[in-house]
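Morning. Coffee machine broken again, so started the prediction first thing and wrote up yesterday's gels while waiting. Chain of 145 residues, entered below exactly as on the submission form.
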Amino acid sequence: MLPSDLVEVIEQDHGALDAIVRGDQGPKKAVFSRRDDVTLANPLGPPARGWDQVEKRLDRSVPQMRDGEPIRFERIVEYADGDLAYILEFERWRGKAGPSDEVVPMALRVTTIFRREGGVWKIALRHADPITTPRSPESIRDLEH
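Came back before lunch.
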C-alpha cells in the first residue's frame, strides 16, 4: 500500500497528463525533482539528466501533443519503502501528435520512480516507451549499427 501523500502526488501527476495533452507542461514540471540526478527518458529523444536538461526536454516534447484527453491509467505494479517508491503503468490518451490534425489513440508504458525530498514526493525518474503489447525479438534490433 502506498502512503497517502504519495497517492496524492501520483494523482497530481496523472492530472498533469491532462494538462500535457492540452499543451501545458507546467503541472508536469511541478512534480519533478530539481536535483542533478533527475532523469527523463521519453520516446521522443535520448534520456535527459539533471533539471536543466529535463526541463528543456519537456519544453520540446510537450508542444508536440495537443487537443487531447487522458483515457485511463492501468497500474501494473506499485511499491514504496521509506523515501523511495515506484509505479509501472500504462498511460492511455487520445490527441493530436506532431503536425497531424488527426485525433488518435496513444499509449505509453511508464515507469516512474518517486523520491521524498524535504518531506514532499517528487519524480526522480520517468521512463516511458510505446511498448504496450508483446513484440518479437527482432523488434529490439539496433538498426543504427
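The mean pLDDT is 93. Going to sketch it on the whiteboard this afternoon.
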